[in-house]
Amino acid sequence: MIDSAKQPAIIATDTLYQRMGGEEGIASFVDSVVEAHVMNPVIRPRFLPYLDSPDKVALIKKHFCEFLGVGCGGPETYSGRDMISVHKGMNISEAEYMAAIDDILSVLEQRQANELTKQEILYMAYSVKNQILHV
Ligand code: HEM
User: Domain limits at 97?
Assistant: First the structure.
């Protein structure tokens, strides 16, 4: 017979997907990041042309959510294009890439994400750097 009062506390380690708030949390995170990109003078010109096409923005956001969901270990399936095909021909610079990373980190900080969460999300963005910069 196990006396539960004497059992050591179980340390619950939430997955990245749980820490990001699951499907809903990720959708809200993506909304904030896209909003930050539109406000960020370094990359704003890249995103402004899309604002006249709400359907296109909704589709890009859906793909962002799926991309992040998969990266966070969620049940999503990514239905967008691969990173090279998406960013090919944009000739994205180091400064633009850093601006996007800054936006991501700012939103994580606004949401008081913990250190592990910030590290994991930033690494996810960093891991595709070579498929985005100057492709
Ligand atoms: C930091 C790492 C980045 C990741 C993980 C990323 C990821 C993505 C994803 C998942 C999509 C949607 C793909 C689709 O709809 O098929 C997308 C679209 C897009 N990204 Fe990125 N991106 C990154 C950085 C950047 C940067 C630095 C810029 C430019 C400053 C940029 C500009 C765009 C644009 C303009 C689109 C829309 C393309 C279109 O559908 O016409 N991205 N990105």
Answer: 18-131
- Tens of pLDDT, residues 17-43: 999 999 999 999 999 999 999 999 999
Its pTM stands at: 0.91
Ligand 1 pocket: which of 37, 56, 60 to mutate (most atoms <8 Å of CB)?
Answer: 60
96 lines ligand 1 (CB under 6 A): yes
**CB of residue 128 inside a 6 A radius of ligand 1:** yes
Q: Is the CB of 81 under 6 A from ligand 1?
A: yes
Is residue 9 in some structural domain?
no
Classify residue 119: in a domain, yes or no: yes
133 close to 84: Cβ distance less than 8 angstroms: no
Number of domains, the chain: 1
Nearest CA residue ID for atom 33, ligand 1: 87
Is 63 in contact with 87 (CB distance < 8 Å)? no
